[in-house]
Write a structure and sequence with these properties.
binds fe (ii) ion, binds FE2/S2 (inorganic) cluster
Length: 428
């Protein structure tokens, strides 16, 4: 037996300190106010997918409470996707909403009309009509268009940036790690199942819960660990990498389909019957675009074999999980206060071609949602524990390197903002 030198930890490889971590960033109202400016008004934020805007005039609105604004995203008559603040230039009314002004909405129109005094705007944001225009004084309609928001599309994912002048293009912001995923057939996966929940915790605590697998054998013991477990690595991370503010974690998987498992290894008998479960349908669909030889290697950046999922954590609040079995899942975390947030989860599959494929998708979404709710169930307990202030710093293992990287990146962005404010005479 040879005694080797212990390889460097993931934490050391990521250039992070190994000290205890302070969670003030998740309980301090002052820190939350800084995050609004330093993070959410500066980073590129994912607000949807191009499939939500299928034709000219299709729009969605997105409430971004942490930035105290609402955004309209619309496909123009020229086919280009643009974004605007959802604020009328007359007297500030919110222009588009359905049931209540607090909720996101979606629809189709040829122009936007304010519900208050009927001003109308084109899909390009230009102000086209003012009721009793000759009653106004020295009004220049051409300068009263909707206020634009920077908007770019990457691989069908729509991002906005609320800065007046973003410091980076979306492509530069996403960097080399996400570049490795370009060409993945996201556009093929048009069957979507969406869930949304109001969560009683700081938004970062839920991100943390989904970016480490240290908790899996305990919190998800109901799954008998089979699906979440990496057999080869016994819950140790096979691969993790950081790329600027972003991270990716890959987990190992099975060779072939999990036929060797007993019914006890799954959460519900329906998984055996339908051949679908937490990790998706047991068989990859036969679309040529989804066969491994046609997929970008960046989906499994560590080259793990067998491989099951890569969890791409795109700073600050967006996650894409790409599954070996030919589907993907996204999470978006939208802060609403220091200790509450709205969480969105979306499952994307290639459109079902048979009834059994459709059932497999529904079983996947349902079983996986149950596991996600197990994660969600810990969160207000964690928030309360942190807010008690009894303990102020916490040890994180090497398995939680992504958590450490995330909180240290948030601190960097907030420190940068504070420094700039101090130099320009602000009070942050
Ligand atoms: S506030 Fe919109 S038309 Fe008056
Ligand atoms: Fe979990």
């Amino acid at each position: 037996m040879t005694v080797g030198v212990k390889p460097p930890s993931w934490t050391e490889k990521a250039g992070l300190s190994t000290g205890y971590v302070n969670y003030e960033d998740s309980i301090s109202p002052q820190f939350y106010e800084l995050e609004r400016e330093a993070v959410f008004k500066r980073a590129w934020l994912n607000v949807g997918r191009v499939e939500q805007l299928p034709r000219k005039g299709s729009y969605i609105t997105k409430e971004i409470e942490v930035a105290k604004t609402s955004i309209i995203v619309v496909r123009g008559t020229d086919g280009i996707v643009r974004a605007f603040h959802n604020v009328c230039r007359h007297r500030g009314n919110k222009i588009l909403w359905d049931h209540t002004p607090q909720d996101d909405s979606a629809g189709f129109c040829r122009q936007f009309m304010c519900k208050y005094h009927g001003w109308r705007y084109g899909l390009d944001g230009q102000l086209n009509f003012v009721l009793q225009e000759d009653e106004f004084f020295d009004m220049d309609k051409s300068s009263l268009g909707l206020v634009p928001v920077h908007c770019e599309v990457w691989e069908g994912f729509i991002f906005v940036n609320l800065a007046e002048t973003p410091s980076q293009t979306l492509s530069d912001f996403l960097g080399p790690m996400m570049k490795g995923l370009e060409g993945y057939p996201f556009g093929l996966m048009t069957e979507r199942y969406g869930f949304k929940a109001n969560i009683n915790s700081n938004w970062k605590l839920f991100l943390d819960a989904f970016q480490e697998y240290y908790h899996a054998p305990v919190l998800h013991s109901q799954q008998q660990v089979s699906s979440l477990r990496s057999y080869e690595t016994a819950f140790k991370l096979p691969y993790v990498t950081t790329s600027g503010p972003h991270r990716a974690v890959s987990t190992g998987g099975f060779k072939g389909v999990p036929r060797h498992l007993t019914p006890l290894d799954q959460m519900y008998p329906i998984e055996q019957v339908t051949e679908a479960g937490l990790m998706g349908p047991w068989h990859r669909p036969d679309h040529p675009e989804l066969q491994p030889e046609n997929l970008p290697p960046g989906r499994n950046p560590g080259g793990i074999d067998p491989w099951s999922i890569t969890n791409f954590q795109i700073f600050p609040n967006f996650v894409i999980l790409v599954y070996d079995r030919g589907w993907y899942l996204t999470y978006n975390y939208w802060p609403t206060s220091v200790n509450t947030h709205v969480w969105e989860m979306n499952y994307y599959f290639p459109a079902a071609r048979t009834v059994s494929e459709r059932i497999q998708h529904e079983v996947t979404a349902t079983v996986s949602k149950d596991a996600a709710l197990q994660d969600a169930a810990t969160l207000d307990g964690t928030q309360r524990g942190l807010e008690s202030g009894v303990v102020s710093s916490f040890p994180l293992s090497d398995q939680e390197v992504t958590v450490r990287h995330f909180h240290s990146t948030i601190a960097e962005w907030v420190d940068l903002y504070r420094g700039e404010r101090a130099r320009t005479g602000g009070i942050a």
